[in-house]
Automatic annotation (TrEMBL):
Residues 104-205 form the SWIRM domain. Its EC number is 1.-.-.-. It comes from Apostasia shenzhenica. This is Lysine-specific histone demethylase 1 like 3. InterPro entries: Amino_oxidase (IPR002937), FAD/NAD-bd_sf (IPR036188), Flavin_monoamine_oxidase (IPR050281), Homeodomain-like_sf (IPR009057), SWIRM (IPR007526), WH-like_DNA-bd_sf (IPR036388).
Length: 824
């Protein structure tokens, strides 16, 4: 990390922490002008799931989940300025007025501020419900709570260097609202929504002597550092074990130098994607740093170095956006089936069907857009889930994309200050159990604690580099396997002088070869923020993988060829760089990839699964790949650390208050999915690609059964005799279209409910699977759906089949807190 402090010249921008005017939040997609001139006004998919800012993103399949009924509340831990107190006392709401309070005239603006921090305008989050912020969900008390919560948040955002106290609200809120003030304040501070960061007033709240449990944190990236700081503030004793010689993990600012030129190069996370509510924007503000808005202008250059024709650019970009829209609509029709189809196959199918991008130049432009999408997702489009690749879009932070002048290492440096980090401690085993945890590092040294927080990247978990004892629950192992972890690499070059235009921050280059579409497809100019003439070239998609074995000399030679192709015809000499650095995030043993994505077969649920605590509140997980709403980002990693600090504190409080945390079957869809999967391991009858499970032990022909049809994989049967029938059925046609491009070997499962008699009838249909499918859909008239499409009606059938089959272990579990006798 660079410790240099160059004289940065950042552009003045509006306050990044203030929300947009309200109207911008309520624009519908049709209100936007997508991009009048894509060549020069192209908003890029600066990673962080702003896939193509110019495109109208449709609401994804997954909707923001708002629980209808509150789960049993965890005991609220009241928090005093000194940290978390072990007082699991439920706030007394009984004397609350039934009237909606008026705090000031800023309720709408305050709601917007809350929205940017991830709070819905008119309802509670799951976290709040779990924390027990109100005595009952949905009433006037909740409305008042939300007003107070929004007000506290807004007050803190006005001055993020301040430590806000409850007393600051005396005289502002009606006195009968004190319990709600306590509740909102305690929630916001204990969960890291207010009073967090590196401002002196906040640092001063860290107690001189920790009084609480020992927590061993594995990894000193943003997640580990955020968690460590919070836990220290709460009074926990913390040690951070880091395998590298430095902290920051995938945020790494390298100081580059040569011939008296210096620059701070962000080799990992660089762009703060959306500054509204972005906690790293808050840290930057606490450090007194202004952010540099990444300007939208992004000229594109053809493989021969000539600028792309603006008209063609508009045409191809519009076509690309149309295809993305179509893919989005298709998945809506397909429901859960889209989970098993790749975004790449859907886009390619549509491109061919609609005849978009047919000339060579159009194709290379089209491929540039695909590369841009692969960059945003750090993943091959052929491996991204059509259904859920953009599941986090609704949570986009909003606001500008920005660079932090001097590099994000400045954030890391500030966050790591006074945190006890032990470097070059590569963890190979984490043991956890009722007595606590043991974290064992290379060389055999053992670190003991009451709890451990694992923040290593998904690539490290996938690789099995850390042994967990006992082994992690199967559902977590499955989630680790399902989620994708892709690759993005960079070439950073420090030049003797700036030869490119200084009124741009980015420019793109097209490739002739589709398999190299991501190779140096985008350049970032860091000249205005790095302190020197620095250019960074990006390598995404397939090219990012082959880049790992390319020699640095070859890589730089290729980049220079591109730059000279662009600039020399303009009469501009391109000098050799003074220093160059090529990243290898894929072979870096502490990362093994760049960031996570939703691969075919995975969903947003997997992020939640990765975040789940295991071992009765002993082993916790944070990191970008545990952050369903903000995965693959720096702010997501940071927020996951704050989340887990709150979680650790809550479990520690529960334990010290003699509150037992027990597991009970979860009602979530994941649990049903796993149960269904389990049940179909032993179907009651099987024929061709069809399998059936029957409910009830009796043989009542009217009793309900669940039928599953498998497409793809080894069970797929091709029958030629049902072609006519196939074409009559839309389900089948849809599958055929997509499967012709479906290059995954996974099986695709669709389901329906039917009677036992209908299932038996189906078994007797002759002519193979295709005729059976025709019979099922046309004669019986059922609709095949994805697992979730089965709906609640299926839940009771699943439960009764499960019950009928005896005591197989429920696979999906969720935490529930139960007070033991004698506890307070
Ligand atoms: C090339 C690239 C570009 C990116 N661009 C952006 C961007 O523009 N904007 C954005 O928001 N995000 C970006 N990201 C993503 C962002 O950097 C990450 O999401 C974030 O930094 C992850 O933080 P983390 O704490 O979850 O993990 P990490 O930062 O990876 O931290 C985990 C830590 O664990 C350590 N560790 C691993 N294994 C062990 C072990 N066995 N024992 C001990 N320690 C271990 C690692 O060394 C590391 O320090 C980019 C990432 C990359 C790689």
């Amino acid at each position: 990390m660079s410790d240099q402090k160059p004289p940065f010249s950042s552009l003045p921008i509006s306050d990044p922490l203030l929300p947009n005017p309200p109207f911008s939040l309520f624009l519908t997609s049709s209100d936007h002008n997508p991009n009048p001139n894509p060549s020069y006004d192209l908003l890029l998919s600066f990673h962080g799931k702003r896939k193509r800012t110019g495109v109208h993103r449709k609401a994804p399949l997954s909707v923001i989940h708002q629980p209808k009924a509150p789960p049993p509340p965890l005991p609220p831990a009241t928090l005093e300025p000194d940290g978390v107190k072990n007082l699991p006392v439920k706030p007394n709401f009984s004397d609350l007025s039934e009237d909606i309070i008026v705090i000031n005239k800023e309720a709408t603006n305050e709601a917007l501020t809350a929205l940017t921090a991830g709070f819905p305008a008119d309802s509670l989050t799951e976290e709040e419900i779990e924390f027990g912020v109100v005595s009952s969900v949905g009433g006037i008390e909740q409305v008042n709570y939300i007003l107070i919560r929004n007000h506290i948040l807004s007050r803190w955002r006005e001055n993020v260097s301040n430590w806000l106290t409850k007393e600051d609200f005396v005289g502002i809120l009606p006195s009968h609202c004190e319990p709600l003030l306590n509740s909102a304040y305690n929630f916001l501070v204990s969960h890291g929504y207010a009073n967090f960061g590196v401002a002196p007033a906040i640092k001063a709240k860290v107690p001189a002597e920790p009084t609480k449990a020992n927590v061993v944190i594995v990894g000193a990236g943003l997640a580990g550092l955020a968690a460590a700081r919070q836990l220290m503030m709460f009074g926990f004793k913390v040690v951070v074990l880091e395998g590298r010689k430095r902290c920051g993990g995938r945020v790494y600012t390298k100081r580059m130098e040569g011939l008296n030129k210096f620059a701070a190069a962000d080799l990992g996370g660089s762009v703060l994607t959306g500054t509204h509510g972005n906690p790293l924007g808050i840290i930057a503000k606490q450090l007194g740093s202004s952010l540099h808005k990444v300007r939208d202008k992004c000229p594109l250059y053809r493989p021969d170095g000539k600028p792309v024709d603006p008209e063609l650019d508009i045409k191809v970009e519009s076509a690309f956006n149309r295809l993305l829209d179509k893919a989005s609509r298709l998945r809506q029709c397909m429901g859960e089936v889209a989970m098993d189809v790749s975004l790449g196959s859907a886009l390619e199918t549509f491109r061919q069907v609609y005849g978009d991008a047919v000339t060579e130049e159009e194709m290379s432009l089209f491929n540039w857009h695909l590369a841009n999408l692969e960059y945003a997702n750090a993943g091959l489009l052929s491996k991204l889930s059509l259904a859920f690749w953009d599941q986090d879009d609704p949570y986009d932070m909003g606001g500008d994309h920005c660079f932090l002048p001097g590099g994000n290492g400045r954030l890391v440096q500030a966050l790591s200050e006074s945190v006890p980090i032990v470097y070059e401690k590569t963890v190979h085993t984490i043991r956890y159990g009722a007595d606590g945890v043991q974290v064992i590092v290379a060389g055999g040294q053992v670190y003991e604690g009451e709890m451990a927080l694992c923040t290593v990247p998904l690539g490290v978990l996938k690789n099995g580099s850390i042994k967990f004892a006992p082994e992690l629950p199967q559902r977590k192992l499955d989630g680790i396997k399902r989620l994708g972890f892709g690759l993005l690499n960079k070439v950073a070059m420090l030049f003797p002088h700036v030869f490119w235009s200084t009124d741009i921050d980015t420019f793109g280059h097209l490739s002739e070869d589709p398999s190299h579409r991501g190779e140096f497809f985008l350049f970032y100019s860091y000249a205005s923020v790095a302190g020197g003439p620095l250019l960074i070239a990006l390598v995404a998609g397939e090219a990012a993988h082959s880049f790992e074995s390319m020699s640095p000399t070859d890589a730089v030679t290729k980049v220079l060829r591109i730059l000279r192709g662009i600039y020399e015809p303009q009469g501009i000499d391109v000098p050799d760089p003074l220093q160059s650095v090529c990243t290898r995030w894929g072979t870096d043993s502490f990362s093994l990839g760049s960031y996570s994505n939703v691969a075919v077969g995975a969903s947003g649920d997997d992020y939640d699964i990765l975040a789940e605590t295991v071992g009765d509140g002993r082993l916790f997980f944070a990191g970008e790949a545990t952050m369903r709403r903000y995965p693959a980002t720096m702010h997501g990693a940071f927020l996951s650390g704050l989340r887990e600090a709150a979680n650790v504190a809550q479990h520690a409080n529960a334990r010290s208050s003699n509150i037992k945390i027990e597991v009970s079957p979860s009602k979530n869809t994941q649990s049903c999915a796993a149960l269904l999967e389990d049940l179909f391991r032993e179907p009651d009858i099987e024929f061709g690609s069809f399998s059936v499970i029957f409910s009830g032990s009796n043989s009542d022909p009217k009793s309900t059964a669940i039928l599953r049809v498998a497409f793809g994989g080894s069970k797929r049967r091709n029958n030629s005799d049902g072609t006519k029938a196939d074409q009559q059925h839309s389900n089948k046609v849809l599958f055929q279209q997509l499967h012709s491009h479906y290059n995954q070997q996974q099986q695709l499962h669709v389901y329906t409910l039917l009677s036992r008699q209908q299932a038996l009838e189906l078994r007797e249909v002759r002519g193979g699977d295709d005729m059976r499918l025709y019979h099922l859909c046309e004669k019986i008239g059922v609709k095949l759906v994805g697992r979730r499409g089965l709906g609640p009606a299926a839940d009771s059938v699943i439960a009764s089949i499960k019950a009928g089959r005896g005591n197989r272990r429920p696979v999906r579990v969720a935490l529930r807190v139960k007070k033991e006798k004698g506890s307070k």
